[in-house]
Amino acid sequence: MKALYHVSASPHVRSNTTTAGIMRDVVIALTPACLFGIWQFGFRAFLVLLVSVATCVASEYLFYRVVKRQKGSYECSAVVTGLLLGMNLPASVPLWMPVIGGVFAIIVVKELYGGLGQNFMNPALAGRCFLLVCFASRMASFTVEKGSGVFLNGAAAVDGISSATPLALIKEGAEYSLSDMFFGFTGGVIGETSTLMILIGAAYMVVRGVISLRIPLAYLGSFAVFMLLFGGHGADASYLAAQLCGGGLMLGAFFMATDYVTSPVTPVGRIVFGICLGVLTGIFRVFGSGAEGVSYAIIFCNLLVPLIEKITMPRAFGKGGKQYVRK
Amino acid sequence: MARGTFRGGSHPYDGKELSKDKPTTVLLPKGELVYPVSQHIGAPAKIIVEKGEHVLVGQKLAEAGGFVSACVVSSVSGTVKAIEPRLMVNGTMAESVVVENDGAYETVPGFGEKRDVTKLSKEDIRNYVKEAGIVGMGGAGFPTHVKLTPKNEDEIDYVIVNAAECEPYLTSDYRMMLEETEHLIGGLKIILQLFDHAQGVIAVEDNKPEAIAKLTALTEKEERISVRPLKTKYPQGAERMLIYAVTGRQINSSMLPADAGCIVNNVDSVISIYLAVAESTPLIRRIITVTGDAVADPRNFVVRTGTQYSELLEAAGGFREEPEKIISGGPMMGQALYSLEVPVTKTSSALLALKKDEVAAFAPGACIHCGRCIAACPGQVVPQKLYPAVMRSDYETFEKLNGMECCECGSCTFVCPAKLPLTQAFKQARKSVLDSRRKK
Hints:
heterodimer; A: mainly alpha; B: alpha/beta; Rossmann fold; 2 domains; 6-stranded mixed β-sheet; 14 helices; 19% strand
């Protein structure tokens, strides 16, 4: 018999779900939308995504070097942040923009607040909003250079797809094609155009148990109700579908509103959070000056999370409510 | 009938296939036997034998030390070799009577005599249970005669046999259900004699279809007894989850099952009640599953209490491979051991040896607020918020967030992707809170 055995308090077994595994699943789930974006907007989109991911991973690494903090096993969360940030940028941005956005997202939003699990805003979205505020015109330019090859300039340039985003068209009262919006043959940021690809990724995450549908369904549902009531188009199904497929709503609802760290942990809180998001997005889209609203809605609701958690704490088993009392 | 269940829980690998089809074999002790005076919740028993005294099988070594206490009975005949502190499963030293086995198994007069249980009064039954030293064998070790004496005897609606055996790897209750089915039903009938208005329910997880089938067939003609299949999910056998699954009644941590009109007993406790009342046999044996991927021949043994764990391992062929971790009990709530020179007590259920220690394989990371712990918590508390409170020793917040409702089942720790020692922190916090309450 060996001299020493491991002794620790129970439980003695662990599930094989790890943080790194979850992050890997999110990266896999984002892949279809990324690939579609690259196909559509060309090599340029690939470069934006690459620079964004590389910046995020590098800034995290450098930050840990500078503050001399030990990092445990690498958990890939900076890759997810980088990917989401890149997906939220137009393919036409100069490459220094994802660098600034990535540094802001990782250093300011995430690490300065304590690193993984401590940030109160979604880092990728905060990075995007920072860029939106600083470089509004570049962030709103979706012009794809006209060229000949799909590889270099993407399908959008070849097919001559309008550079304006469908939501902007809707807001102006112009024509839009619902099927193009669903499949993604429209203008927009790299990762948001194809509803289909995003749904494929979302389905993967649900099957793998990475996300529950509480937040996305509450978000999309409350947004749809808001648009029915205040959208000014009544019960126009195609308008509603266009609003759901357009802009960053799908990407936001499934991939960014569901970010664990910046959404409520309580089951009821997640539904409340989704409803807040739906209503805010509706307000921003209908009454705001821009056509978009998802990013601001999410980072604003991120700030409500501690409050939502506080009022939605579950009731402990056997305490109050249905507790059994003898007659 | 619909399968009973509860909210939350988890599905750890159950490992029962290693030993579930191995019939029990009787294992007689070789060396000395150790009988600690604290094998139960409550006051320690008072030793009534002296060093050098000759004792018989069934003879009391120690008398109950109060109302909530239980006596300790010798499981062999022999000489009292020593009365001294010995190492226990939980790593502490406890006052114990050490008996040198003479191998004759000479019994006290009247041992094993059959009684006609239907003619016994309620008082007689409770007294026989008390004298047999029976305690809750699911792990807590609450003295059974106290459990069978609730203040509201007439308000007991259910007598539930906890046959869930939700703890992974354990198959001792399962073997008993198949091998001593009549004793189990007989024991339940005896308990029902105490509670005139109660229904007997044998609650079994549905991963034991053979046991459900056999119990159902044998209780078909029993009007007061039914078999209730439960959904297989850890921790279905936790008392409060079990009561909820069977009756729909919820009790919190400060209530007793009797407050919800329930009496809950573990399979082996019920069988022991039968043996004590109907066959004049006190609690001198336990069924122990010796299992795990590091054990050469995983099996189920009928063991005399006081036997050393090392003898169990030897009987199971020793180690197939050097284990990293040895556990008394199951992997979710069992105690890790550093020595096998500890005795089998009334609450022992298994000896588990694992090749790999999963706890050491994962380093704890940062909480990412994924909410898996909340979804898994059967007590519907919020481990994610409790953990930081414990880490900063903020026990006030811990209590405010219902930390005391934690049943220490380990589900949150099992599912945590950051591998945080949640349950471990809560155990320590609950202990601190209980200690400071006692001081007041």
